Structure formats: C-alpha cells, structure tokens
TrEMBL record:
Tagged with keyword Transcription: yes
Annotated ranges, domain RNA polymerase sigma-70 region: 28-93
Protein name: Sigma-70 family RNA polymerase sigma factor
A UniProt-annotated Pfam family: Sigma70_r4_2
Domain RNA polymerase sigma factor 70 region 4 type positions: 124-174
InterPro entries with a match to the protein in the record: RNA_pol_sigma-70-like (IPR039425), RNA_pol_sigma-70_dom (IPR014284), RNA_pol_sigma70_r2 (IPR007627), RNA_pol_sigma70_r4_t2 (IPR013249), RNA_pol_sigma_r2 (IPR013325), RNA_pol_sigma_r3/r4-like (IPR013324), WH-like_DNA-bd_sf (IPR036388)
Origin superkingdom: Bacteria
Organism of this sequence: Chitinophaga pollutisoli
SUPFAM superfamilies hit by this protein: Sigma2 domain of RNA polymerase sigma factors, Sigma3 and sigma4 domains of RNA polymerase sigma factors
Family per similarity comment: Belongs to the sigma-70 factor family. ECF subfamily.
Keywords: Sigma factor, Transcription, Transcription regulation
Length: 188
C-alpha cells in the first residue's frame, strides 16, 4: 500500500483500469477532501457533497476500462464532480417541482372535497327543510321541483286551483329560504 501512495495519478489510474480497487482507493484518499469542498461550494450541503463524490468514484470504478484517454486525473475528477453536482441540482429542482405540483393538486382536491362537503351539507339541510314543510305544501313543492310538473298539471292532478299551487310553491320557497338564511349567508 505504501508503494501505491508514491505512484503518480496516471500510474494509479492505470492500475485501477487493470482492476485494482486499492489504486482507486489511493486516488480517492488523495482527492476526496478537495472534491468535497468543490461540491460543497455549489451544493452548500456536506452530506449531498459527499454523496456526489461517492457517485463520481463509483462511476469511475464502473467505467474504469474506458478511461484510457484520461491524462490529467485531477482535472478529470473536478470535471466529473462539477457535472455530477449540476445533475444533483437538476434532480433536486425536478423533485421540488414535482412536490410543488403534488402539493398544488392535493390543495385543489382538498378544496374540491371541502366544496363537495359544503354542497352535500347544503343539500342535506334543504332536504331537511323540505321534510319539515306541511304535508300538502311539501307534496305540491316536490311535484313542482322534482316531478317537473307545471302548476296547471299539479292543479289537475291534485284537483286544486292553479293559483293555490302557485301560492303553495311560493310559500314553500319562502319558508326554506328563511330557514336556510344563516347557512346561505355563510356559503355565499
């Protein structure tokens, strides 16, 4: 091991190309501190900087057979760290955008659910108020609103005057509106 420490970067890289992980370890120990500082300048996060350096050396080991053209190890490592650092930042920005999109979608869905809950509550309240109408008034109101019958059709069906139908529907609406005033003023 002591002899490897005395080797040049080029000789260590040649040994690493031949499969010597110890030679790559010497290169790592020789440059990792400076490379971490280089990455730390950009990332401002020591853990992320260490991860980037580790990634660079893993890639270096995995691609060791393809490093014949590398003549300046230090320059190669600085370039690799710069590129890995930029990739790390792009990935972080992409993740941040994705999280922002997820949050916006989640907020939108929560708002929709809230609106649906509010609408469902309003519908339940209206149904409750309709059920509390006097029996004959409720029957006329429901034939008008749910049965889609005209006042004349309701009057013929129930054998009452069309004016009575009109008055009963009007009174039902007034009662429902009056009882829903607080809820409606809160919603609208």
């Amino acid at each position: 091991m002591g002899k490897q420490n005395d080797l040049t970067d080029q000789e260590l890289l040649e040994q690493a190309r031949s499969g010597s992980s110890a030679a790559l370890g010497v290169v790592y120990r020789r440059y990792s501190g400076l490379l971490i500082l280089h990455a730390l300048d950009v990332l401002e996060d020591e853990e992320a900087a260490r991860d980037v350096i580790q990634e660079v050396f893993i890639n270096l080991w995995n691609r060791r057979e393809h490093l014949q053209g590398v003549t300046h190890v230090k320059a190669y490592l600085y370039t690799a760290v710069r590129n890995a650092t930029l990739n790390h930042l792009k990935k972080e920005q992409h993740i941040a955008k994705m999280l922002e999109g997820f949050k916006a979608e989640s907020d939108r869905l929560r708002q929709e659910e809230g609106e649906q809950d509010t609408m469902a509550g309003l519908i339940r309240k209206i149904e409750s108020e309709i059920s509390r109408l006097p029996v004959k008034m409720r029957e006329i109101f429901l034939l008008s609103r749910r049965g889609d019958l005209t006042y004349e059709q309701i009057s013929a069906q129930l054998d009452i005057a069309p004016n009575t139908v009109r008055k009963q529907v009007s009174n039902a609406l007034r009662i429902i509106r009056m009882n829903l005033r607080l809820l409606c003023s809160w919603i609208f």
